Amino acid sequence: MKFVDEAVIDIAAGNGGAGCMSFRREKCIPFGGPNGGNGGKGGSVWFVADRNLNTLIDYRYNRRHEARNGEAGRGSDQFGAAADDIVLRVPVGTMVKDFETDQILAELIEPDVPVLLCKGGDGGFGNLHFKTSTNRAPRQKTPGWPGEQKKVRLELRVLADVGLLGMPNAGKSTLITAISNARPKIADYPFTTLHPNLGVVRVAPEKSFVVADIPGLIEGAAEGAGLGHQFLRHLQRTRLLLHVIDAAPVSDAVDPVKEAKALAKELEKYDPELAAKPRWLVLNKLDMVPADERAARCKDIVKRLKWKGPVFEISALAREGLQPMLHAIYEHVRAQVEQPAPPVDPRFEAPAAPAPVVEETVRPVRAARKVAKATQADNDEPVDPRFAPIEPEADESPAPAAPVRRRTRAA
Hints:
By secondary structure, the protein is an alpha/beta fold. It has seven helices and 14 strands. The longest helix is centred in the last third of the chain and has 16 residues, at 364-379.
């Protein structure tokens, strides 16, 4: 099957059905009243990720997808039927973008989770909808609402944990064949790989990760040299990049260090975030280098590149040095995978802390009286005066007498 990772399609939801204006006409029923039903809802357009698909070839030639319109309402209180929705199945990892604004509308990463892209129009109202106690014979109706229409671009980005990066004929396809069950095309000429290949690497029981092999890059890929850099989008979801270098080039004129630096520049031109991802150096084809020269050649390449990260010396064809590299890759990937927090059972949740009690600020004397009364009421015993709270003594000094006014008889 041909691998297609990009397509432009038009999607359109169905229009809602129009409402109906009708009145009941029967013998011996002079005032039947309105009986026009509402219109049906138009069909919507949904997208669903399917793990059984790996290409967008179904949308390369079939570029128009329309849902049906809803049925119009009819008399005798008959509502129009709603139209069926249409479901477009795409591979897992597909991004849906608006063709004009390049805005991301949906990113389908989880399989079998429907995403609504175009909503169908609602049906119009019949005159039965407008009947009230004061308007018993309405003669109005509304048309159905139009459905949404969009022109979208579908971009497939494979879901992989590790991406293989390198120049043509660096041995990437041989490496993914050696560590997984993937069987890409392998030949002795450049650009053998024309589309990404995925392989599942099993390090141990229940320990695995996914590797993606993309076509090789050359200097000037940003300007369209070779196959271009359009396949680099498949590495944007990876957690680790393996930079595969041919340590034994066929021609002496080929400098692996110069090629590695050119590839790093191409990554910067395409996406700085992709260039900032963790990148490990893999020196391949060491089986073609004499055993006494391997260490010196690998040391020279690392020194000229000024490489500070991990370096692995392997031979994919001879299966040499692969196991230490695979175990290191798995530990790195596992450390970056976010483990979801387990759900908390409400039955075993910690009890909530009691709210702090706010004490009233009362006078000491009044508080002492309350304590004394409460103690006496509880025990029904008299309070020992020695332990009774001291109350402020009242002022018992006699009040000054008012002056007495005597009345005298006038002489």
